[in-house]
Write a structure and sequence with these properties.
The protein has 621 residues and is α/β, with parallel strands linked by helices. 45% of the residues lie in helices and 12% in strands. It is globular. Bound molecules: phosphoenolpyruvate and magnesium ion.
């Protein structure tokens, strides 16, 4: 869940690393140009010097405990051990894709860490220290790890270098435990030099929320999937990005000149003058294209035969509001509220949430805003919920299949009610809809509606002027179960929003945020398309609004197919709106419907992909 930090042997220790540096490499022989391939996650060309983000040293405060706090503190320590073990297990799982040489170094080290996190002298002594000295776990870890490291270095028959290495390993495990106890971010993004290309082993969605798009040229990471939330956030921020680049961190040195081609999924390190000139030319062409598309902003999203299509934006962070205004999107079709709960230790209260929702609703100046309630689970790390003990520290054993989305909110009704109250307060400032994530049964929708109505009644008693009928309450269709039960779910819902990111993940059993099986992640797989079609038809039969807000909504190549399937409302990252608008304006609904029928007759994903590009070529030509 949390970033793995750095796998120690493959890079210099943090102390030797320049701080968030992108300083030019010393003059000398020109390093060889290296091309690496990854996942084309966020389009655009970025040219800049590589920077790696530095780790922040966690602040350790020594606190004395009361007798009755000791057992709880030991439990907290045990949770941090569990989280550390999970992080290291994840790192071990990646060994197979690393070069043999890196493997040879990493494997014994991971064994040593695993042993230390087991029933070792280190963990036993830390527990004893907490109990006997009645001190907080962070202090006990730091003091014990340092004491043990010094003792290991001072004693023993091994040579000095081996003793030093062992002592460093103990300190490293101590640091990992302290970070997991204090939930300190592993990296600091505010020190990145302007115009840098960020290279990282892994970025979590919470990390991505800390990036400043105005400061960065682009992003490349070694891990990460095509449709994980990190990928979505990078697209939303308009940062060209290539994720899932095997071997990146073995090759990437801070200060190296780099090119990110986010559309092709290619990273070039130490480009030659010729490659650099070609990239600069591509960048200039991209700017011209963006300007051309920008002129579509004020034109309506109508097909050639005058069919109106609603194009809205997805919003992950308030920082995107100006970009949404520029994009020509008419409202927000999916406001993911997770950002409100990330990178903080306390859960935002009703007033704080209401303030943010009102800010968004007012910024939309009368255009509709669909606010989705908190969707914890999957790869989203939401610190405030961990801090409050609402969800387990390391994300639980299988949060994608467990108490995710609405399931958590129905268990934690206070959390749910607080958020609904804040949203309803914002609904008095402009048109709002409420969206429920991860729904699988009609009963969940009924229960959610009961809570919603109860909150509405309470707010009215408090004097809030709410209409007799509360704003529409809709659901995400993002599991095969929900899609196949769409007819019964439609009876309980006011609208559907089809989340193809999760729908593809759950249908094809491929983690959207992982690298290894990403070649199997395909929203154009006939199974995914058939589920979508089923859900769309269930909604259209009863004339209920249905939109698509997964990432495929922003892929202009798929616009004719979605229109042909009956979709008239799409929500996407704001950067995609102009291109999709252009696609809408270039087609007629009859052609789209015919095309969709021919696609839905196919059973081979490859054939479907070929049909999609064939339709596009015909239209472009
Ligand atoms: C989806 O699953 O398609 C979706 C839009 O929700 P999220 O990406 O936030 O899981
Ligand atoms: Mg989803």
């Amino acid at each position: 869940m949390r970033t793995e930090g750095k796998p120690p042997p493959r890079r210099k220790p943090a102390a030797e690393q320049p701080r968030a540096t992108a300083a030019a490499k010393p003059a000398g022989r020109q390093a060889k140009e290296t091309t690496l391939y990854g996942l084309a996650v966020s389009p655009g060309i970025a040219i800049g010097r590589l920077a790696t983000a530095t780790e922040q040293a966690p602040a350790i405060e020594r606190r004395e405990l009361f007798e009755d706090q000791v057992a709880w503190e030991i439990e907290r320590f045990d949770e941090a051990v569990g989280a550390s073990r999970k992080q290291l297990a994840k790192l071990r799982a990646r060994l197979s894709i690393l070069p043999e040489e890196a493997n040879r170094e990493l494997e014994p080290l991971l064994d040593a860490y695993a042993q230390m996190l087991g029933n070792s002298r280190l963990t036993r002594n830390i527990r004893r220290r907490i109990g006997e000295q009645r001190i907080n776990a962070e202090a006990a870890v730091a003091e014990e790890a340092e004491g043990l490291a010094e003792a290991m270095f001072a004693a023993g028959t091994d040579d000095r270098a081996t003793r030093q290495r062992r002592a460093d390993e103990v300190r490293e495990i101590g640091r990992r435990l302290v970070r997991n106890l204090t939930r300190t971010p592993w990296r600091n993004y505010s020190l990145l030099p302007h115009g840098a290309v960020l290279a990282a082993e892994l970025l979590t969605p919470a990390d991505a929320a800390l990036l400043e798009p105005a400061r960065l040229a682009g992003v490349m990471t070694e891990e990460g999937g095509l449709e994980g939330h990190t990928a979505i956030m990078l697209r939303a921020l308009g940062l060209p990005a290539v994720l899932g680049v095997p071997g990146l961190m073995d090759t990437a040195e801070p200060g190296t000149m780099a090119i990110v081609d986010g559309r092709a999924g290619i990273v070039t390190l130490n480009p030659t003058a010729t490659t650099l000139a070609a990239a600069r030319k591509a960048l200039a062409a991209e700017m011209r294209e963006r300007q051309r598309l920008g002129r579509l902003r004020r034109l309506p999203a109508v097909t050639r035969d005058e069919e109106q299509v609603e194009l809205q934006a997805n919003l992950e962070l308030p920082i995107e509001l100006p970009m949404i205004a520029q994009s020509g999107a008419v409202g927000i079709g999916l406001l993911r509220t997770e950002f409100l709960f990330m990178n903080r230790d306390d859960v935002p209260d009703e007033d704080a949430q209401a303030e943010t929702y009102i800010q968004v609703v007012e910024a939309m100046q009368g255009d509709p805003v669909t606010i989705r309630v908190l969707d914890w689970g999957g790869e989203k790390q939401i610190e405030s919920l961990v801090a409050k003990g609402i969800v387990p520290g390391a994300g639980g054993d299988n949060p994608a299949l467990g108490v995710r989305g609405l399931r958590l909110l129905l268990k934690e009704t206070e959390l749910f009610e607080t958020q609904l109250a804040a949203i309803l307060r914002a609904s008095t400032k402009g048109p709002v809809r409420v969206l429920l994530p991860m729904v699988t049964t009609p009963d969940e929708v009924r229960k959610a509606r009961e809570v919603y109505d109860r909150v509405g009644r309470r707010l009215r008693r408090r004097g809030l002027d709410l209409p007799e009928h509360l704003p529409p309450l809709g659901i995400m269709i993002e599991t095969p179960g929900a899609a196949l039960a769409a007819d019964s779910l439609a009876l309980e819902s006011d609208f559907f929003a089809i989340g193809t990111n999760d729908l593809a993940m759950y249908t094809l059993a491929v983690d959207r945020a992982e690298t290894e099986a990403s070649h199997l992640y395909d929203p154009l797989h006939p199974a995914v398309l058939r589920l979508m079609q089923f859900a769309i038809e269930a909604a259209l039969r009863i004339r209920m609004p249905v939109s698509v807000c997964g990432e495929i909504a922003g892929d202009a190549r798929l616009t004719p197919l979605l229109l042909g399937l009956g979709i008239r409302s799409l929500s996407m990252s704001s950067g995609s709106v102009p291109r999709v608008k252009q696609a809408v304006r270039s087609v007629a609904i009859d052609d789209c419907a015919r095309f969709a029928r021919s696609v839905m007759e196919q059973s081979d994903p490859g054939r479907i992909a070929a049909l999609v590009s064939g339709f596009q070529t015909k239209h472009d030509g």
